[in-house]
Structure formats: structure tokens, C-alpha cells
Amino acid sequence: MVDATLTMQVQGGFRRKRLVALAVPVLVLGYLAYVFVAFDVAGLAARARMDNAAILLADFWSHKTHVTRDNRSGALTVAIEGEQKGTYPAGMLPDWVQVAGDVTRIDLGGGNRVTYDAQGARYDVPGYGTIDIRPQGGKLVLTAPEPLPDWINASDTRVSVTTDAGRFAYTRSKVETFRYEPGWELFFFTLDSPFYGKSLPDLVALAFGPRIDPARANIVFMAQEFWGNKMWHHGDVAWAIFETILMAGLGTFSAGIIALPLAFAAASNFSPFRAVRFAMRRLFDFVRGVDGLIWTIILSRAFGPGPLTGALAILITDTGSFGKTFSEALENIDEKQVEGIRSTGASGLQRARFGVIPQVTPVLLSQVLYYLESNTRSATVIGAIVGGGIGLLLTQAIITQKDWEEVAYYMVLIVLMVMAMDSLSGWLRRKLIKGE
Asked: Where would I find the H helices in 209-356?
């Protein structure tokens, strides 16, 4: 009878485990199905514009040169990214743009050619034919092989063409052609720099050759031209990176300094008053329970924008996190070491200094260094809100939706910054905690 009861209990336990093993994947699948419907995944996929995504990705690693003619004055402008700072000066044009009188010929490569003339403009597309545009009576008249493909958008006021070779747009006021080329153009030197267009061997020879500017050596001149690049602003970007690291470091280390004495007040083995312990723990819960971004918004309204406001937001949030972690570390110390220090007649401060701090230092340093890594990433987002650091530059570049290669540049720098802080944190952890 006992064996039969035991057998039934074991079999019942196996059945429950099988049901649980079956129920878990069913619940997961049910949740995923709910998410699919609630978040309209099918509609999101239908609305996706992969052509725009392809253009965006191309902008990350390439640049475009604008060849623009003002249809009213006939003035021709060739500018990298369409910026004034990237405009080719008079008498200097890329070799794929040829100007003869009022005729401009643009070679986009692969047989794609655009021609501006007094009558309008033409775009010769291999395998399709010629797209001819002529303004008549205040409207644009398009002549092209029918039916028009979907990469041609035409109306009475605007004609735009998008091919793999580039883009073309004609309106009553201007005609513009965009040629895409790989690389981040003008990254080192702008068009007005005497070092623009020079190969690496030429730059090396110039660095130690006769001075271009009598007041400074060529290598110093090169460094200043690069640092003060009017297109990429390397000097400003370097300062923004420094601001971001400063924001993270100031907020993290200040939070650690403030949280340590508060943690003693929250630890049950150091604070005899239950009301004080309760108040400290609820304070830690409050300040860390509100997300750092919320504190950033509140503080920016109170103190105005700036990197210091971001550091304060990090300080407030991390004070709560450190206070909780530090107090738990204090409650788990070995009391025998403290008793040994007390037996020598040491004061309370001396017992804390020589019996408690050495025990909790590895935990404290480990937590502070980990949060320093994390806050370096967070400071990028916080900087976008309070107007400081690399986060502000990244947000401005995204909002303009113009120079996505700058967005890629800032993203690369952010990743490198996080990697550097991770390596620094690991090195400090080995030196300070392990003594290596």
C-alpha cells in the first residue's frame, strides 16, 4: 500500500513537471502572438521604406557632391554635401564636371550623364534612354520613354530621378544633381587648405619641407588645419568627448563619496536607530527609482542646460544605487576584524577606518568602476537633453538629416570612448583591487 502511494506521488510529480514544461513555451508563444498583434508588426513591415534605409546606409559611409544651377541667374555651384564650407572655389572643379559656356556636363559613371544647357537639362540613363526636361509657360515639360519607371517622380513643378549612380532634381528655380562617392570627404583638410588633395607621401614630404607659412612649420600647419577643420570640427568634437567623460566621472565619483557615509546610516550593524535606517533606505529607493533621464529633465528646468546638470542627474541616481549596495556590503562584513581593532582601544572612527573600510573597499571600487563604464554611455543620452558633450552633436546631426556620415563619425567615437573607458576601468580594477 505504501509502495502504491509512493508510486502515485512520483507519477503525479512527473505529470506536473510535464505540464509545466509544456505550459512555459505555450505562454511564451501566446505572449509573442499578443505582441505581434498589439504592436502591429505586420503593419510596421508593410510601412517600411527599404529604399530610404538603403539611402541612409549609403550616407553613413559615403558623401555626395551637389552640382546646382540657379535657373534664374544661371550661376553654377559645386559643393560637397551642399555646404558653403565645402563649395569648390572659382576655377576649381572635380574632374567629372565639365563647364563650357552655359553648358555643364556631369559624368555620374557607368554611362550615366547629366547635361545642363540653356533650354533645360537632360539625363542619359543607360538601358532606359534620355530624360529631357524643358520649362515652358511656367511648367516643366518632361520627355522620356513611356511608361515612366517608379524611380522617376514627375509633376508640373518638379521632376526627380533616383538611380544607382546618383540623384537628379529639377524645379523651376534650380536644377541639382547629386553624385555619391565613398569615403568621408574633407575629413582631414578642406578645399581651401594648401594640403587638400595631397597624397600621403606628398604630405610626409611637405611636413618637413620648405615652409608654406613662414610663421610656422608645415607639420604644425597641418595639425592646425586638421584640428580646425571647418567641415568636421575635430577640435569641437574632441572637447565634446571630454565633456561627456567629465560628466560621467564627476557624477559617478561624487555619488560614491556622498553615498558612503549615508550607507553607514542605513546599515543595521552601524546605525542603532531603526527610524534612521528606514529613512535612509527609502531615500535610496526614491532617488534610484526615478530614472536618470527624468532627473535630467527636472534638473535642466531648474538649473538650465549644461554638462554640470547632467553630472548632477547621474550623481542623484547613482547615490541611491551606491547607498543600497554599500549598506548591504557593510552589513556583511566580518565582525571579528572589527572586534580585534576594538580590543586595542581604537575609537569608532579608527574601527571604521582599519576594520571596516578594508573589507568593503573591493566591493565599493568594483561598483564605482562598473557604474563609471555604464555612465559613460548614459552621459551621451543625457548630454543630448541638457545640451552638452558628444550627445548634443549627435542629436544635432540626426535632426538635420543632412550629413549622416557625421552621425556615423560620432557613433564610432562613442563606441571607441566606451571601449577606452572599459579598458581603463579594467586596468584600475586590477591595480586597486587585485594589486596586479
From this structure: 218-227, 234-266, 274-289, 292-303, 307-331, 335-342, 348-351
pLDDT of the residue at 292: 85
**What does the pLDDT read at residue 315?**
93
Q: What is the CATH number of the domain that holds 313?
A: 1.10.3720.10
Nearest one of 259, 261, 265, 260 to 280, comparing CA atoms: 265
Q: Are residues 359 and 387 in the same domain?
A: yes
Burial level of 343, CB count in 10 A (0-12/13-18/19+)? Answer: exposed
Residues 163 and 248 in one domain: no
CB atoms within 10 A of CB 429: 17
Residue 165 · residue 109 · CB < 8 Å: yes
Q: Which three cell numbers stand for residue 76?
A: 553654377
Domain check: are 283 and 350 in the same one?
yes
Residue 170 CB partners (closer than 8 Å, separation 6+)? 120, 121, 133, 140, 158, 159, 160, 176
Phi then psi for 113, rounded to 5 degrees?
-135, 140
Q: 20 is in which domain, residue-wise?
A: 2-45
Per-run averaged pLDDT (10 residues), the chain, 436 residues = 65 73 83 84 77 74 90 91 86 90 91 93 93 90 90 91 90 92 88 88 88 89 92 92 92 93 87 87 90 87 85 92 90 78 73 77 87 89 85 85 82 92 85 69
pTM above 0.90, yes or no: no
| Cα separation, 37 vs 33, whole angstroms | 6
31 and 119 inside one domain: no
Give the Cα-Cα-Cα angle 290, 239, 366 (nearest 5 degrees).
45
- Is residue 330 domain-shared with residue 416, that is, in the same domain? yes
**Are 38 and 70 in the same domain?**
no
- Domain count along the chain: 3
Same domain? 124 vs 30: no
